[in-house]
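Slide 14.
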Amino acid sequence: MELSKKICNMNDKKAIFFDIDGTLRSPVIGIPKSAKEGIKKLKENGHLVFLCTGRTKAMLLDELNEMAFDGIIAGAGTYVEYRGRELYRWELEEDETMRAAKKLREYGFVPVPEGHDVFYLEPEGTWTKEYKMIYDHFYYNVGGELKTIPPEDKGIKAAKISAVISKDSDIEAARKYFQSDYLVVIHGGLLLELIPKGFSKAEGIKLILDDLDIKQENTYGFGDSMNDYEMLEYVKYGVAMGRSDDQLKAIAAYVTDTVENDGVYKALEKYELI
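Slide 15: predicted structure.
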């Protein structure tokens, strides 16, 4: 079909929301060419394309920043922007950040406070093998400012807190302690993520839809982990990647292939968005 025939009118404009890690990006191959091509074709067809990630804005990869997304939902809904216009920003109180970081250490984790402009890591000379692995996977080559965690965690501006899992980590004790105030998400036995209650990717999507007057029936979401659960449940067409958690696959409208096997592109073709 000719491109001119596929350009959508305003009433048919679709909004497509993409998680990053495990969805748009593989730790092995990075962002596949097919995903980049799919994003390009979506924009050519007049649709709106958004990053919708648990990463805070400071942790967005330079490569993603260059892909000209229409907007960003970051920090699992604690930050929302559209074409450079900030719609929402929220951060933890300093005392709460200090409390959470202290308890994470007590349970055998190494905290990583994540702000919208800055993220914080332990002094580099103290890094363990696990910590270096997480840095290479999540934090290397990102656009935000990196700072060393200050003494006693004072002065940190964080929207949420992740923590590196080690052989000494007591995951269940941490989950029980934090579950009243946070959604606790475990990523592949490598990383624990604390998302403040009341925030989710779905809440960020709602802000975008309200601001742009887009109907929920015209929304699509792509994800692979449990911090994508609310997003896939809320959008009209939730797409789970091939390596997703079984709970996520159970609520998805469609389960596509893995990121390495062009899962994003295949699902966009299935829904005739490209």
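Speaker note: The chain has two domains: 12-90+199-270, 94-196.
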